[in-house]
Amino acid sequence: MRYLTDRKRAVGNGASGTGTEHHWWMSASGVALAFMIPIWLYIVGTTLGTDQQTVITTFSNPFPAILTALIVVVGMRHFAKGAEIWIEDYLHGTAAKATKIAMHSLAYVIIATALYALGKMVFIGLLLGAN
């Protein structure tokens, strides 16, 4: 006798065969973001109105840097997958393909830009800490 969970029975079902996987990924990333973003907003809120060196020092610490990187990567992947579903619902043909490519490209450009800026702050923070 095989024991299958409800999720295991649902995987692979549906028109595209990936709807369950997509739903679980969006649910998990949404919950993760719901826990991470308030903490991140508190960190960012404490740096508002301070000088550049304080901001760099704050984001040079491991926890704010890793949290920021996670929020950017998970948030932009969540955005891209959500936009893809919207595009599939409302656009068709070449317009749908072009818009999907544009949304995924936008997400990856934002990820790359944010990680570059974060890396630069961490590097500058390391240089300032060495002096």
Automatic annotation (TrEMBL):
Entry annotated with the keyword Ribonucleoprotein: no
Xref: Pfam families: Sdh_cyt
GO molecular function: metal ion binding
Segments crossing the lipid bilayer: 24-43, 63-80, 101-128
Main location: membrane
Keywords, sorted A to Z: Heme, Iron, Membrane, Metal-binding, Transmembrane, Transmembrane helix
SUPFAM superfamilies reported in the protein's UniProt record: Fumarate reductase respiratory complex transmembrane subunits (SSF81343)
Gene Ontology cellular component list: membrane
Cofactor: heme
UniProt signal peptide: none
Localization per Swiss-Prot or TrEMBL: Membrane
Entry-linked InterPro entries: SQR/QFR_C/D, SuccDH_FuR_B_TM-su
Function text: Membrane-anchoring subunit of succinate dehydrogenase (SDH).
Protein name per UniProt: Succinate dehydrogenase
Organism the protein comes from: Thioclava dalianensis
